[in-house]
From TrEMBL, chains A, B:
Lineage, opening ranks: Bacteria, Pseudomonadati, Bacteroidota, Cytophagia, Cytophagales
Stretches assigned to coiled coil: none
Protein origin, superkingdom: Bacteria
SMART domains: HTH_ARSR
Cross-referenced Pfam families: HTH_20
Signal peptide: none
Protein name stated in the entry: ArsR family transcriptional regulator
Alphabetic keyword roster: DNA-binding, Transcription, Transcription regulation
SUPFAM superfamilies (alphabetical): Winged helix' DNA-binding domain (SSF46785)
Molecular function as annotated in GO: DNA binding; DNA-binding transcription factor activity
InterPro entries: ArsR-like_HTH, HTH_ArsR_DNA-bd_dom, HTH_MetalResp_TranReg, WH-like_DNA-bd_sf, WH_DNA-bd_sf
Domain HTH arsR-type: 8-103
Species whose genome carries this gene: Hymenobacter persicinus
Keyword Coiled coil tagged: no
Length: 116, 116
DNA sequence: ATAGTATGTCGTATATTTGCGACATAGATT
DNA sequence: AATCTATGTCGCAAATATACGACATACTAT
């Protein structure tokens, strides 16, 4: 044993995993889609559109906000959440690069040891 | 009063979240990258390349296999894991569609109620 | 000031994830 | 056969995620 066990993980891997985790719950996917579809920046109305309590929705909102994927601006009594499209575009590129790498030709090279 | 609380979540949202969850840990991202980089379909050698015990790596492998993102072929005494590039390409498209939707213009329309 | 409304935080309960040692299994090797 | 070797499963502990009611805060309106 005592193999190299290379450094924990690369920053790239941790970053991708972190964002993937943010999208790892239907509610958070739904929230992003909701914010993308609304022309007006809605606030807690989000909770009314999801099958979850307001408390739970707030938690999901906080998780997305922690990664800066969404932003909330206080507008008097209400809070207006919006997508951080700039960051989302960067994230999209990261995912694209990852998938491009993963789906690149010769996943199991021609002279592979097995048939998969 | 919009108490609709729409149906739990759409299949699309649940599917995207399910895959995102599979990518929500650095180890699983690393495994996919590893399989993509090796010309030969490695097996438990994967564990030797990660900072985790063999048991834990096996668990991550099972999670990826449960979603059919990777496949394992028994090759005598060893097992040969490979990426399911076909499925990965489909998944990539799902993510692309999601991000395209999320980063589309007019996230907060011109006449938005707030300034974000 | 008082009341009302939108929002977030706290505490808590339950479920899931993560990690690993110990054990079981099955094909290979002697 | 006896043994080695690669792999997976089991059981357990700790950490994290999920969900929500009750409470606190802050702004608005009467």
């Amino acid at each position: 044993m005592t193999h190299a066990k290379t450094a924990p993980f690369t920053d790239e891997q941790r970053q991708l995993a972190r964002v993937a985790k943010a999208l790892a719950h239907p509610a958070r996917v739904a929230i992003i889609q909701l914010l993308a579809s609304k022309t007006t920046c809605i606030s807690g109305d989000i909770a009314a559109e999801l099958p979850l309590s307001r408390t739970t929705v707030t938690q999901h909102l906080q998780e997305l906000k922690a990664l800066d994927l969404i932003r909330g601006e206080v507008e008097g009594l209400t809070v207006c959440y919006c997508l951080n499209t700039t960051l989302l575009r960067q994230v999209q590129q990261q995912f694209t690069a990852f998938f491009d790498q993963a789906t690149a030709p010769s996943p199991c090279a021609p002279d592979a040891a097995c048939a998969c």
